[in-house]
Amino acid sequence: MQLTARAREIIQILIHFPQNHPVTVSAVSEELGVSIRSIQRELLTVEQWLNENGFHFIRKRSVGLMLDEPDDRKQELLILLQTNSPARISTDDRRQRQNLLCRLLLFADEPVKSYYLANKLEISEGTLLTDLNQISHWFEKYQLRLKRRQGLGIYIEGSETAIRQAAASCLLDQLTHSLQLEPGRSISDIWNSCPIQDINPSIIKNVGAILSDCEKQLNLHLSDNERLRLLIYLALAVHRIEKGCPIPNENSIFSQKSMEPEYAAADYITRLVRRCFKFPSAPGETVYLAAYLTGFHIWPSESRDLTRRRDFDIHQVTLEVIKKVGEELQQDFTGDSRLLKDLEGHLQPAIGRLRAGITIENPLLSEFQEKYTEIYNACENSMEILQKVFDIPAVYAGEVGFITIYFIMALERKEKLERKISAMLVCPSGIGSSRLLASNLKKEYPDLDIRGTMSAFEIDCDKLRRDRVDLVISTIKLSIPYQNLQVNPILTRQDKMLLNSKLSLLQKKKRQNAPEIKVPTPPLSKTDVEYISKLGTEIYRLLGNIRIGQAPVLGKRSEVISHAASLFAENAEMEKHFQQVLETRDQMADTYIKPFHALLLHGRSSMTDHICFGYVRLEPPVYDKTQIILGAIVSLIPEGTDSQVCAAITSEVIGALLEKPELLEALRSMDDNLFASLLEDTLLRFYRETVKNLLKLPAEPKKN
Asked: Which pTM was predicted?
């Protein structure tokens, strides 16, 4: 094996110490002007080289390093070092000296002292200063900055990709110079002689073997120069990753590259590198290598035009695949957002693999073909879409097998969903206690499919049947010809017992009945567009019309309701009307919410054309029977066509108060700005989710 320059320097230091006199790592670190960590990284190379050449090296924790050899053997070692020393670049050659200076800075683990550089290059401080000024312009071409700080040292600052580009350029220049010095040798000979002292020789050897395998498996045709550049790139990538400097992942770039054949080749290469060097997954490395490969003609000229670019929408293609498989299986997958997201994520890199002719092994292929024959065949037939859009000659069975998995899981989710009990929640107005009930039901019954909330005055039994709602759960007593159950907004033990019994009966009945007809999801309608428009307008209005105030000293519940009615009243008639609405709701069912220690006063009014929301703080509190009332949450929505939109928004606000304590705290402290800011985040998220559900858009990718 070959020694790195630093490993050679460590051995030379050990030679100068007596046989039974260990030297500490910190002493070696101080002598060479580098960190202890840098020395520790080189010790494995030192130990392996000395053992291979028959020298006894001792390395003990808390003791130090020692070359256990007599003086005559040390002289032999010194001669061996000189004999096997690689040709040193002449520092008299300014170009090569500056190249070496660049490499010393690019491969340094920490800021380097100027006296160390001057000593290393055997030049004066003045010459070093001149060289640094000149190479700083070279670094700028790579968007790197040469930094010099007194007391700290000299170092390079910039992105990881820029550092690698500059380092690769330096190494290529070094190898080219070696080729010029030895004109009778090929690039392969120069590479195999390993003159690169900055990278561990074992990395270079393993990377060379990986690239040779990739050339055969991927049918790559590389010129000598391209092979050399790719070897440098990969060796440098491994070196940097080992130092804890991987390229960060960027999802936007991944989306652009993942369908290209170069990405498939890059993915194959990086998988071999990860396996060889035991690296974790690093998508950023794959994307950057794919971009690097686009600069090469890596496939023979007679091959089809793999790199041809064309406009396509992977989201639309995925929808077409799902539609075709659904038609063959007579299943409706259009509402399965997870299938869309997962399948789209698989097809992106799969398209690149297929265009590059790269196969992947699927150990469960035969099982899928035998056990899920119908699903597999449907998936195989749907691949005609990919072949047509992307000019793919064939889709391999292993790839079809993986795609089959997504539809198997989708059918399992569908079956589980069909066994679920669906429920519609009802309260007097549809905007208050039903939202609190929904939060409690989600905690106690996570498998319950809650379809929504509505007012008791809006119940349409025919529509409930069309929507296949199994149960109506209400906070008030109902007299309707439909399965229903009355509970409290905050579930009591008796409520849970009744619910458990009712849900058990419905599940048993559902299992006995034949599967229901699947109704396909209708396309986006004009009504949906109007709903989205009104939703955005009402959220904007609400955020600008929140009223929070301190009530005067009040003695009883009726006075609290009377004061709450005045929050939004513009005249005496309006105040009287609002008071009547709030009192009617309070008499229908108790509006006191124990977790809030507040009244939830709400209702529908013909005297407002938008949402009114506010909070009345009571100080001192009002005591009503056993209830301590610290405040009143006041909400009014209009009657008529805008009622549905306003009810959904108000319901979301009430739910947010229950789920986010900081919102309620902002109300109690009467901090208008903080409350509006927190509520804005909640309502905008609600708006985005509503729009995505109506438009059937894919879910947004997660951030790292």
From this structure: 0.40
